Amino acid sequence: MAMTVEQLKTRAAAFRLEALRWEDMGYSEQTKRLRDNADALEELAELKEAPPLGYAENGKGFIYPVDRADRITNPVPVFAAPPALHIPVGFMLVPKKPTDEQLRAMLAVQWPAIYREHLRHPDNGPKSAKKTEDDIDVATRQYAAAMCASPEADLPTEIKQS
Q: The whole model's pTM is what?
């Protein structure tokens, strides 16, 4: 789903309001992250509003400056490619396959006492190793289920068919 300039600006304003709320509670790290996200969205909105650099004639290999667009029968606007934006931490993609660190973190959250005990005594015998392998298998399946349930971007039909 491509967001319009208006939607980007609205979301940036919402991030700024949320940042003020967190700032009032004294959470500076959360405030900074929200403001960085708002800045990134506003920068993206500015790039989407950029005027075309010129026009290409549909079916021909010529590009004309903006002031000569009236001479073209089938004008196609030509835009400069925007520079790659820095992705804020909150927007980074999550890998489809969990890393070892993610699995350890999930186990530590789900069974903190068992996981802590396993870290203290990694060689507790085959039963302990089997239990740990089962726990990792469960955590991997939970992670896969969560990734499958996550929303996907709405792609144009021509991309879905290819």
A: 0.38
